[in-house]
Design brief:
By secondary structure, this protein is mainly α. It contains 16 helices and no strands. Helix 5 runs antiparallel to helix 6, helix 10 packs antiparallel against helix 11 and helix 14 packs antiparallel against helix 15.
Length: 434
């Protein structure tokens, strides 16, 4: 009898039954617990290998090379303790392991030169390494304090057994200057590492500023303030490189803020919070830069007054509705572009200053009028008031376009053709009562 062919439905049912009968995968909690157990076992295995190497190889070798005057058992104990204290077991960049280990080796060599037997000299080096590590870690040794009890047994053996033979007080006293030298080396390495880390962090922040400037979804007001904060931060970093300022708190604030901006949402609350944070940070950087040199140093230039006017517009627009606030954002963004263009190209300064002096003030007047109208509309929404609000929106829209055009014309070095448009804007503003 010929078999019936297996249908696609039968194959699908068989697959589902197999999946249902398969054991469920581990939950995240169990997987995390298993990972911790695995890490713990791995760490235990490493420690076991270290102690085994010390007991089975290092200690017997050092004991064999030590003079017969020192008891073999005491020599093995002292050499074993020296091994577990001298061997660095932390990360490569952890100075609290490697600097003490180096100081311990120096102490071992110095004690040997001063006539101490090999095992006792090694123990003195291990004791030096442990003590210096405790100092560098500010006594925050955790489980390493267990080693102190074994070292206490070693010190007891050092003075109560044949290990005291050849004990050199000069070698013991030399532990103080060796420890001091080790501490100074650690401080020097810390400054060098800190300088390199700070240099790397500054480079990351500057790259972050460049990337953020391309994120149009942040909004015009954020991008406008970002541009000025980037300028302040660059000047601040220049001071850091010259050694004129080492305020890590400010550097960390810049780093944290730029990281937050990468993860920023586009909702109004997040944008306003970031804007306030950037403005506060820019003001703080301004204060630092002014204390550093002031206008005569070239750090603070003549265009800061215009930047302050733009910032006042951004603060004033917080109480406006969405439509006029959008136009203020566009005006602020274009204004910072105009200021940047004047800084980069001195030939743009006359035209840029004429424009900003006239229209930043005019914008502030329109915004002030708009705020008054909105406050009035909350209690009295008449037809005349609605018309006035519409006219102010229209004026702000035209002014925002004028600011964008001015920035573009300065970039193209074409200010002649823009004169007619400005005249038309003036006429329009007068027709709308401004």
């Amino acid at each position: 009898m010929r078999k019936q062919p297996i249908t696609r439905d039968e194959v699908e049912r068989a697959r589902q039954e197999q999946q249902q009968s398969a054991p469920a995968s581990l939950s995240p909690e169990l997987a995390q617990a298993a990972q911790k157990v695995g890490s713990g076992l791995k760490g235990f295995a490493k420690r076991f290998m270290v102690h085994a190497a010390g007991l089975l190889f290092f200690a017997p070798t050092i004991s064999a090379l030590t003079t017969d005057a020192v008891d073999e058992g005491a020599a093995i104990l002292l050499a074993y303790l020296a091994f577990i204290c001298l061997l660095p077991r932390g990360p490569v960049n952890d100075r609290t392991w490697y600097v003490p280990a180096a100081a311990g080796l120096v102490q071992w060599a110095l004690a040997g030169l001063l006539g101490m037997p090999l095992a006792t000299a090694a123990f003195l080096g291990g004791l030096q390494a442990y003590a210096l590590r405790a100092i560098l870690k500010k006594l925050k040794m955790g489980s390493e304090w267990v080693t102190a009890f074994f070292l206490l047994a070693g010190v007891t053996a050092l003075f109560t057994t044949t290990a005291s033979t050849g004990l050199s007080w000069a070698a013991i006293l030399s532990m103080i200057p060796v420890a001091g030298a080790g501490w100074l080396v650690d401080r020097a390495l810390a400054r060098l590492t800190e300088a390199k880390s700070k240099e790397k962090l500054v480079a990351e922040i500057l790259d972050r500023f460049k990337d953020l400037a391309q994120r149009k979804q942040l909004g015009s007001s954020i991008l406008a303030e970002l541009d000025i904060l980037s300028s302040r931060a660059s000047q601040f970093f220049t001071i850091i490189n010259k050694g004129g300022h080492t305020d890590d708190a400010i550097l960390n604030r810049i780093n944290t803020l730029t990281r937050e901006m990468f993860a920023a949402k586009t909702d109004m609350t997040a944008s306003e919070r970031l804007l306030h944070s950037m403005q506060d940070l820019s003001d703080e950087l301004d204060r630092i830069l002014q204390e550093r040199g002031g206008p005569s140093s070239g750090i603070i230039d003549e265009f800061r007054g215009y930047e302050q006017q733009v910032r006042e517009l951004l603060i004033a627009k917080r109480s406006l509705t969405a439509e006029p606030a959008k136009h203020i954002d566009a005006i602020a963004y274009a204004s910072y572009g105009i200021i940047k263009q004047m800084r980069e190209d001195p030939t743009d300064k006359p035209a840029g200053e004429r424009f900003l002096k006239r229209y930043l003030k005019a914008t502030a007047e329109v915004v002030s009028e708009r705020r008054r109208l909105e406050q009035s509309s909350s209690s009295n929404r008449s037809q005349a008031l609605s018309s006035a609000l519409s006219r102010s929106d229209e004026v702000l829209e035209h002014m925002a376009q004028a600011f964008r055009d001015e920035e573009q014309y300065l970039m193209n070095n074409d200010t002649v053709n823009f004169t007619a448009q400005l005249n038309a804007l003036e006429t329009f503003m007068k027709m709308r009562g401004h």
